[in-house]
Amino acid sequence: MLLTAAAGFYLGSRGSVNLWLLAHTLFGTALVASGTNAFNQLRERDVDARMRRTRNRPLPSGRLSPRAAGVFAAAISLAGVCYLGLLVNVLTAGLAALTLVSYVFLYTPLKAKTSLNTLIGAVPGALPIVGGWTAAGGGIDTAAWALFGILFLWQLPHFLALAWIYRDDYRRGGLAMLSVEDPDGRRTGRMILLYALALLPVSLLPTLVGVTGAVYFFGALACSVAYAAVGAGMLPAATERRAWRLFIASIIYLPALLTLMVLDKAAGI
């Protein structure tokens, strides 16, 4: 989240980057992100206790009390939102608050009810880059929506691959993931390819709206085609090996794309 917020801040800066303002933005964002994570673990402590991957977290293992976790989560979340509102701007603080609320009060409870929770969860995951953009002085404009769209769509193949790898764990936890409802992986493979293909044109938008130049455009085109190609491997046969390959490709893709954006930021932006 801090990486994407920093990239959004740099892309949204006009002229030289205000390093003090960037530091304030990242500190406030870190507090809200940490509070969001803490609230999530508080609300899902019973689910975490049933899953092998999460049962040793502080709450299900009994190393931390729910009361202490709740106080901690509330304190740092409120501190982060206030910090951003006072030292950055109100719009960025509002986006941080929206990130917390949408993750904790929409995405988290929906995980036990519908596999569409993945789409909801991608919203708070895509907001930090917009928060970085607005912190630098940008508004909620076409460029901000383009950055949001890239982060939103990138997360879906990334998370669907992870959900396929840990599908048995999610089943034990009682979570309504697509992978739990998809024994042969065909639906998961189709959705991965659909989202990866949708990301391809969206990833080119920063150049089309004047944020980046031609180097980014062609670099993003190559990266997105490669990402879709790896995702297509899940279509004929959803195996853990192919899911791991896609997951690794996803964590290479995003830093590569952000690096291209930063290196090829259009003059005058």
Question: Could you explain how this protein is built, in words?
Answer:
With 269 residues, the protein is an all-alpha fold. The chain has two domains: 1-140, Tetracycline Repressor, domain 2 (Orthogonal Bundle); 141-269. The chain is built from twelve helices and no strands. It has helices at residues 2-12, 19-43, 45-50, 66-87, 90-110, 117-135, 142-165, 167-173, 186-203, 205-208, 214-232, 240-263. Helix 1 (2-12) runs parallel beside helix 12, helix 2 (19-43) runs antiparallel to helix 4 and helix 7 runs antiparallel to helix 12. The longest helix is centred in the N-terminal third of the chain and has 25 residues, at 19-43. The chain starts with a helix and ends in a 6-residue tail after the last helix.
List keywords for this structure.
single chain, 269 residues, mainly alpha, Tetracycline Repressor, domain 2, 2 domains, 74% helix, 0% strand
- Estimate the helix proportion, in percent: over 70%
Percent of sequence in beta strands: under 5%
Separation of the first and last Cα atoms: 22 Å
Could you report the average pLDDT, rounded to the nearest whole number?
A: 94
Number of domains: 2
Q: What is the CATH H-level superfamily of the largest domain? A: UbiA prenyltransferase
User: Per the principal axes of the C-alpha atoms, what is the gross shape?
Assistant: flat
Q: Helix/strand-derived class? A: mainly alpha
Main β sheet profile: none
CATH topology of the largest domain: Tetracycline Repressor, domain 2
**Continuous helix count:** 12
Q: Could you name the ranges where pLDDT drops below 50 across 5 or more consecutive residues?
A: none
The count of DSSP E runs of length 2 or more, i.e. the number of strands, is 0
CATH architecture of the largest domain: Orthogonal Bundle
Radius of gyration: 19 Å
